[in-house]
Amino acid sequence: PEKRKIISRFGAFHGSTIMGAALSGLPHMHKSFNLPPLPVIFAARPFHYLDGLPGEAEHDYATRLAQELEALILAEGPETIAAMIAEPVMGAGGVLVPPEGYFPKVQAVLRKYDILMLSDEVVCGFGRTGNWFGSQTFGMEPDMLSVAKGLSSGHLPIGGVIISDKVYQCVADEAHKVGVFGHGFTYSGHPVTAAVAAEAIRIYREIDLVSQARRLGDYLHAALADALNDHTLVGEVRGRGFIAGIQIVEDRATRRAFAPELRIGTDVERRCREHGVMIRNMGDVLAICPPYVIAPKEIDYMVDGIRAALDETAAEHLRTGQLA
Description:
Layout: E1 5-9, H1 18-23, H2 28-31, E2 40-43, H3 48-51, H4 58-76, E3 81-86, H5 102-112, E4 116-120, H6 134-137, E5 144-147, E6 160-163, H7 165-178, H8 191-206, H9 209-228, E7 234-239, E8 244-248, H10 264-274, E9 280-282, E10 285-288, H11 296-319
Parallel strand pairs: 1-2, 1-3, 3-4, 4-5
Antiparallel strand pairs: 5-6, 7-8, 8-10, 9-10
Helix pairs in contact: 4-5, 9-11, 10-11
C-alpha cells in the first residue's frame, strides 16, 4: 500500500484531467492550472537526436537512460513507486521514437523493483506504428494500457483501459471486499459509441489495417527522406510506421534550434496550409499522422507541400537576415 508514486517522463502527454495533466511532462500544462500536489516523478525523455552524448550509439543511450531510471527509483525508494507510464512513441512531446532496446532495458529495471509498466496507446494504438499496439513494436510488455482515438476511428468519443489478469485480480478482490467496484462515468459502456468502436475494429480487420499501415508508413518515410533529408531547415526526420516528425533546426551541423520568438514552426505550418496540407506544429517539430485512407499520390502531394513550405520559410528568413 505504500506504492503510490507514478513515474512519467519529461515531454510526455497523458491527458488533461487533473491526474492526466500531472502525469504530462509538458511545462505549459503545469504553469497555470493550480495542480494539487500529486505523487508523480519524472524521468528523462528518450530523445537521442538532442539528448544523446557526442558519438553515443542508440543502444548505449538506452542503457544510460535505464541506469538513470534505476538511480531515480533508488533515490525515491522502490517501495513507494507503483508504476511507470509511457507512450511507445511520444506524441505531443515531439514524435520521439525510443532508441534501440529502450523499453526492454527500462522494463528490466521496473521488474527488479516490482513496478508496473503502463502503456499509453491513445496515439500509437490500432496500427499507427505498424503493429496493433505500439508496445508490440518496441518490445514493451505492459500491465495496463489505455486506448482511445483509433478505437472508434475518431468517429465518436470513446476510451478504455485494458488490464492484465494480475491487475484485474487485485481490482476484483478489492471490489469483493468492499462490495462494489467504485468506479464509473456517466457515459461508460455507451451503446452507440461501443457499437461504432466494434464496427471500426471489424473494418480494421477486413482491410488488414496493420499491413496497410506498414505499407503506407514505408511509402511516407521514403518520400519524406527523399524530399527533406538535405533541407537546410531539417535536422532529422523520424517516426515509425505511419507517424512521423520533422525536426526543424537553425544549424544542421550543431543541431541548434531557432530562438522560440521567431516562431519558425508556426510559420512553416501556416505555409503548409497555403499549400493545402494540414500538419501539427509543436514548436521545433512538425508532426504528421495521416489517415489510413490516404493514397500514395496524396502522400506525395502532402510531402511536396511540406517541402514548398520549408523552402519558402528558409527563403524568407534568409532574406530578412534571421537565418544563418
